[in-house]
Specification:
mainly alpha; 4 helices; extended
């Protein structure tokens, strides 16, 4: 399916001003940038757990591929499960009122 000149690939939710730096989600990242934890120098600082996990995933995926490819942590999005991952994708692709048809592979088609 080809896009016309006026069509966008991403949804209005994914491309609006509340996505990215203007999103409340990034308040935690800003707090970490302003006051990062350090075990000796700043024990009262903010620990950014997501950053460590994403870096670990990028390193693991590179090792799993035998070092033939590298993964940029800034291009990795993590989710708390399949439902969260599906929701993230849907918010990026669909505008309000759009619908998706999702096949249920686990259901027995005869019953």
């Amino acid at each position: 399916m080809a896009l016309s000149k006026n069509q966008q690939l991403l949804s209005k939710i994914a491309t609006n001003d509340r996505h990215g730096e203007n999103s409340p989600y990034f308040e935690g990242w800003k707090a970490y940038d302003n006051n990062p934890y350090h075990p000796i120098d700043n024990r009262e600082g903010v620990i950014q757990m997501g950053l460590a996990k994403i870096q670990a995933v990028a390193n693991f995926m590179g090792k799993a591929r035998g070092g033939r490819v590298t993964f940029d942590p800034s291009h990795i999005v993590m989710s708390g499960g399949a439902t969260g991952a599906n929701e993230t994708v849907m918010f990026c692709l669909a505008n309000p009122g759009d619908a998706f048809l999702v096949h249920d592979f686990l259901r027995d088609p005869s019953g």
